[in-house]
């Protein structure tokens, strides 16, 4: 593999500003037109040998025919990115700049470097290289690339509908998700590859208060304003729900048991008996560790008066709710109402649903992921967990419960902090290792 050529192709992908926005009219339609054309230019063997279909509105679906019949593998990624409007980028977000770290490690900068054009490029690099070697998989391999994942668009659902219509049997699905990380679990010093066997359900909840309006120069003395009442509700709902052991926790603890030291290692081996110890340790750990053992909720949007000197008649807040496996949307909605304890605050679901099914952390699909990891990141432990974010993969649970979420790159805390923020970047050696992961995975298809 020529690493310079691989790097240049990634840089080219990052230079196309395929930014998804909630208001589709505001996006750069020319960029969304150019990106699939660029893929055909950069990966000619893939486009010459694989069947290709556009899936409306923004999906790209490829079929690599296998030598024999049997359940297929689906590899997923998305090519849209979140906006990069924040100031303070070290390198322009769509420059694809190539630099060297202090130790000489090359790094590519740009929105989508990790989320998720890095994975898309790594998949296509693996396919292109295998085609050049004359390889054909034993069974079908499908590539499903969505162009609207960041706005929870319809492309992934449309791809699932097409596969169902064609009667495609699926062994397992791999989408974006966890990564190779270090320091995420208390008591475990070694790097771990956290592979999502589930993901949280996601919902948007609106809190709404209606009160008489008026002039801000003479606020009411005998009742709270709409904003004051809403503020009290926000304060109450901002206290996170209690921790519990979701069904994804037990296989996670079992995987960590051999690596954790001291009392935590013992607790990981006896999770039911020492549940309070585990919940306390994870709760005191990183924000990510704490979120593994509870549903989470946070207010992300506020709306009030249209002018500075007006008492609003309606004040609203939007809660971003992430529902842990083992809980439900209805249960979390009832908890929100109970915690607010104010009938004057209406609680409404804008959209959302329960967590999808949990994939098995054993059996052939899991073993194939672990074997590919051993090629790309030797000695790194595969750990099942519940992914905190939402992915297009949740729609593919209609085809198989074996939907996994893993991005095969080692990421530092700084690199993780760049996701959906400024200075997103990826180290070139990690990109190359990701290609090796996908190649090893495909070779066992």
List the helices and strands and how they pair.
Elements: H1 3-14, H2 29-42, H3 44-49, E1 51-55, E2 59-64, E3 72-78, E4 98-100, E5 106-109, H4 117-132, E6 141-146, H5 155-165, E7 170-181, E8 192-199, E9 201-210, E10 214-215, H6 226-237, H7 249-256, H8 262-269, H9 275-284, H10 287-291, E11 296-303, E12 310-311, E13 314-323, H11 329-340, E14 345-352, H12 364-376, E15 381-387, E16 403-410, H13 413-417, E17 425-427, H14 428-443
Parallel strand pairs: 3-6, 3-7, 7-16, 8-15
Antiparallel strand pairs: 1-2, 2-6, 4-5, 5-17, 7-8, 9-13, 9-14, 10-12, 11-13
Structural class: alpha+beta
Amount of beta strand: 15-25%
Oligomer: single chain
In which range does the helix fraction lie?
Answer: 25-40%
Q: Judging from the principal axes of the Cα atoms, what is the shape?
A: globular
CATH fold field value of the largest domain: Aminopeptidase
Average of pLDDT = 95
CATH class of the largest domain: Alpha Beta
Q: What's the main sheet like? A: 8 strands, mixed
Detail the poorly predicted runs. Answer: none
Number of DSSP helices?
Answer: 14
> Which superfamily, in CATH terms, is the homologous superfamily of the largest domain?
Zn peptidases
Number of domains: 2
Radius of gyration: 23 Å
First-last Cα distance: 21 Å
Tell me the total number of β-strands.
17
CATH architectural type of the largest domain: 3-Layer(aba) Sandwich
